[in-house]
Amino acid sequence: MFKTIRARMLFGFGLLLVCLLSILGAFLYAQVKGTVVPLTQELSQEVLRARAIGLGHLFRGYLNDVRTLSRDAVIRSGKLPAIQRELVGRKADNNPDYEIVFFADAVGTYVGSNDTSGYVGDRSYFKAIMQEGKNEVIGEPVTSRATGATVFVIASAVFDAQGQRIGVLAATVLLDTLTEVAGAINIGSQGFGWVMDHQGLLIAHPNETLRMKLNLMKSAENGYQGLDLIGQTLAKGESGLSTYRRPDGTVFSTIYTPIPNTPNWGLGVSLQESMLMARADGLMQSILWGMVVVLALVLLLVFVLSGKIAAPLRQLMEGVDFVGAGHLDHKLDIRTGDEIQSLALAFNRMTDDLQTQMRDLAAVTAEKARVDGELRAANGIQASMLPRIFPPYPDIANLDLFATMEPAKEVGGDFYDFYRLDEQRLCVCIGDVSGKGVPAALFMVIGMTILKNLVRQGLPLEQVFAQANNMLCSDNSMFITVFMGILDTTTGDFEYISAGHNPPLISHAGEAFSMIATRTHLVLGGMEDVPYQSSRLRMAPGDILFIYTDGLTEAQNAAGELYSDARMLAAINALQDRSVKGLVEGMRQQVAGFVLDAPPADDLTMLALTLTTGAGTSSEKSALAGRH
Predict the structure, then answer these.
(1) Helix, strand, coil percentages, rounded to 5, for the chain
(2) Is 547 in contact with 580 (CB distance < 8 Å)?
(3) Residues 411, 438: contact at Cβ < 8 Å?
């Protein structure tokens, strides 16, 4: 694409500069956005909070007016004709926000300042004062029965001279008044204010099609997204800053806060989200134009300078392409007397060194392939030494056993083994050699063979471990942790010894797994003439024995965390209803899900067995029949 040095330099410097300017622009944009937008939001919140307090004072003023008038002697007389004349006479002095001022007696008959009368006994504000005993109420928006306009009511209880509650004095305020107050909040050129009652209904909004019709709590039904959460937050009496999406897809940022001295009404201001970034975007446009000018000047300078150095470099590039095609014996002949000539000489030396390294690399690769082949063969040999047929003894119908070993390297130091000693006794063994790789694998074979030979000689388990320990101590720097047990599949009696190995787990009759109590013994190969003592337990049908190496509990994830005994117990108890094969494979999956892509830290070996309720061998059947 770029066939000349000049083009490449222009592209390289241009790309670098564009990247740097892009990073700088992104940084500046983030700084501007992180300053302008939060500042706008903070100022808007302060403005809204102040306006909400102002509205709260306005409502408090309404309540004070009505409360003061309710204490007038004529009003307290309870005589409707006299009260109506009093209210009509005071009409010119009333707050201009009031549509009418009216008095309702104890049964709900009212007379108003506009010389009207009627019945309001079914109104919620009337019931709140006359039936629930409240002294002051700001009612929810209703349709005025005097004028037909949508209003909200400021009401106060009226008491006679004896202190008896005789009626309600109230003033109605047009919702248009509330809309005008909310609409006077200016945040940006297109921001608008609104008021919500405690049920989520918009009672003040510049859009008449939404006023008294849209309920924020149910706005999702009308295609709004996020507006219902704003309504729920306001209904709890909490302030906040959120965004919502209208049905047409426009996103609005909204600041909202409760209005003091109201029945949990809320005041909000919404502004199209794109308008929040208008100032920041304008500033960034100026910055971007400046960056474009800088980019053009730099590219012009690179264009001029690249022409002066392109000629000798072209020859160098042609030589590089030729050598890059595989002609490592090609030599560059450049005599410019400057750094380019030095570069050509260095390049010639590099090709000589590269030829030498290629020959060395071919030899190393061949050797590595040979070693890898030997290790693969060793892995196959090691795997073939471990029992791999499951179930291993179909004629023992009440036994189910499964085991697996995964080396951390091509070959490992872990092993498991099991074999029959007679018709009813089964020996199981698991071990872990200190170290990994080929030395550990060789020592594993030795230890595994010694243990198997000694057990099959019919020696007691304590003597097997003592002799194996002494044999493994000879001229050796390694040791093995071993757990071995002999299970009588007829009686369920299980004799075992642990030589420094992790305590196995057992589940009795479907109960949770727990660790087997094992006596503390030294590892095999650690020190000569160490005594070992066996322990016993009884396995009943349905009991599950789980034996493992420390590759399970000490498996590490990328953060260096160990799988641990706690995680192991939690995982195996969650898999308790599975077969022994499902149990082992499930634990392998649990460990894999924990370590993920982290390389294995150690070999992982597991063995699980259980005595089922099925029939055993012929000898076992006879033994079981004898016990019955």
Answers:
(1) 45, 20, 30
(2) no
(3) yes
Give CA separation, 103 vs 71, 164, 302, 572, 586, in Å: 12, 16, 88, 77, 79
Provide the b/e sequence for 339-351 (b: ≥16 CB within 10 Å): ebbebbeebbeeb
Residues in a beta bridge with 290? none
| Interval 116-170: pLDDT, tens | 899 999 998 999 999 999 999 988 888 887 777 888 899 999 999 899 999 999 9
460: preceding bond cis by omega (within 30 degrees): no
Q: What percent of the chain has pLDDT over 90?
A: 41
First to last CA, the chain: 92
| pLDDT tens track for 237-266 | 898 888 899 999 999 888 888 888 888 888
For residue 364, give the amino acid letter: V
The set of long-range contacts for 282-291, using a CB threshold of 8 Å and a minimum separation of 24, is 283/32, 283/36, 284/25, 284/28, 284/29, 284/32, 287/25, 287/28, 288/25, 291/21, 291/24, 291/25
Residue 160: its pLDDT value, please? 92
Q: Which of 90-104, 138-152, 433-447, 605-619 is predicted most confidently?
A: 90-104
- What count of residues does the chain have? 628
Distance CA 148, CA 114 (A): 13
Q: List the structure tokens of 375.
A: 């290790």
Give residue 505's identity as a one-letter amino acid code.
L
Higher pLDDT, 316 or 272: 272
- Give the max Cα distance, the chain: 123
| DSSP letters spanning 344-372 | HHHHHHHHHHHHHHHHHHHHHHHHHHHHH
Q: At residue 163, what is the residue type?
A: G
CA nearest neighbour of 607 among 360, 480, 447, 417 = 417
Q: How far is the C-alpha of 28 from the C-alpha of 20, rounded, in Å? A: 12
pLDDT at residue 627 in the model = 34
| Residues forming beta bridges with residue 254, ordered by sequence position | 242, 270
Q: For the purposes of burial, counting CB atoms within 10 Å of the CB of 269, is it exposed (0-12), middle (13-18) or buried (19 or more)?
A: buried
Q: Does residue 48 contact residue 255 with C-beta atoms inside 8 Å?
A: yes
Contact 172, 98 (CB under 8 A): yes
Return the bridge partners of 405, or none: 605
Out of 315-319, 357-361, 428-432, pick the least confident: 315-319
Q: Which pLDDT score, from 0 to 100, does residue 34 have?
A: 67
More confident residue, 83 or 437: 83
Q: Which residues pair with 302 in a beta bridge?
A: none
Question: 487, 534 in Cβ contact below 8 A?
Answer: no
State yes or no: cis peptide before 38, omega within 30 of 0: no
Alpha-carbon dihedral sign for residues 189, 191, 193, 194? positive
Whole-number pLDDT of residue 198? 85
Pair 617, 424: CB distance under 8 Å = yes
The answer to whether 256 and 266 are in contact (CB under 8 A) is yes
The predicted model gives 412-431 an average pLDDT of 92
Look up residue 107 and give its two tokens.
């049964």
Token code pair at residue 20? 């740097």
pLDDT of 490 reads 93
Q: Which residue has the tokens 């995982």?
A: 571
Q: Are 224 and 244 in contact (CB under 8 A)?
A: yes
Is pLDDT of 373 > 60?
Answer: no
204 has pLDDT over 90? no
What are the structure tokens assigned to 344, written together? 């050509």
